[in-house]
Design brief:
Number of domains: 1
Number of strands: 0
Structural class: mainly alpha
Number of helices: 11
Mean pLDDT: 86
Distance between the termini: 31 Å
Strand content: under 5%
Shape: globular
Helix content: over 70%
Length: 246
């Protein structure tokens, strides 16, 4: 019972943060749940994919209430991410992981630098959605190769190509929802579910993700949102590097 309480509390906090950033919770829930569940493939991955899709969806609703979701662009981007992600899974069978990880860390360093770098008013340009669509393809392929959602890299990319941070978060939240559910399908046959815990986590995760999106929509300044995301990128990348070297 005590372990369940800690899992629920931790997942709630992570869902709140992910909702604030317009992400599904998998990027943080996957390593967190691995501390409590021994079978990563049959327990952790199916659960985090399900949580990722639903928390991202409820974060979308939270941003939509304040008008931060451009549905046409979000749906178009979701189609691109859903179709591109499986390519990464196929490439994982033939390309050395070291090469992909080098590309991943290089991309993260560039994105973190771009988020922290101040942008002068005269440097600001309009939204370049066509460029966002083009970049979403390699981002989704890379995410599929690494077994993570594309939102972690897609969200800062949308900001860099000109989207206001809150609008980027709203679009990103919806764009990563379908890939989460499509990636879950191959796991269903062999997934091991604790139904009671799963239902509790789904309720807590969706509620806190929605709340996080509402907090960002109403109270978090755009510049602060960029900084928060940059910090999260650095922390999660440091953790990933630590796990690879440990």
């Amino acid at each position: 019972m005590e372990t369940t309480i800690w899992i629920v509390i931790g997942l709630g906090i992570l869902s709140l943060i992910s909702g604030m950033l317009g992400l599904g919770v998998a990027f943080a829930a996957s390593p967190f749940l691995s501390f409590f569940m021994t079978d990563f493939v049959h327990q952790v991955q199916p659960l985090t994919l399900l949580l990722n899709g639903l928390t991202a969806l409820f974060a979308t609703f939270g941003f939509a209430r304040s008008g931060f979701v451009d549905w046409k662009k979000a749906i178009t981007l979701a189609v691109v991410t859903t179709l591109s992600a499986p390519i990464g899974s196929l490439l994982a069978q033939i390309i050395p992981q070291t090469i992909i990880l080098v590309i991943y860390f290089a991309a993260v360093i560039f994105l973190a630098y771009s988020l922290f770098r101040p942008v002068k008013k005269e440097q600001r340009t309009g939204e370049n959605f066509r460029l966002a669509l083009i970049l979403a393809i390699p981002i989704s392929i890379l995410a599929g190769f690494l077994g993570v959602g594309p939102g972690f890299l897609l969200m800062p990319t949308l900001i860099i190509v000109g989207f206001e941070p809150k609008k980027a978060a709203g679009i990103n939240a919806f764009a990563v929802t379908p890939p989460s559910f499509s990636a879950l399908i191959p796991h269903l046959a062999n997934a091991s579910w604790d139904l009671n815990l799963t239902l509790i986590l789904l309720v807590v995760g969706t509620a806190f993700a929605f709340t996080g999106a509402r907090i960002t929509s109403r109270f978090v300044p755009p510049a602060r949102l960029k900084q928060i995301f940059g910090i999260v990128i650095v922390i999660m990348t440091a953790y990933k590097l630590f796990t690879l070297l440990a």
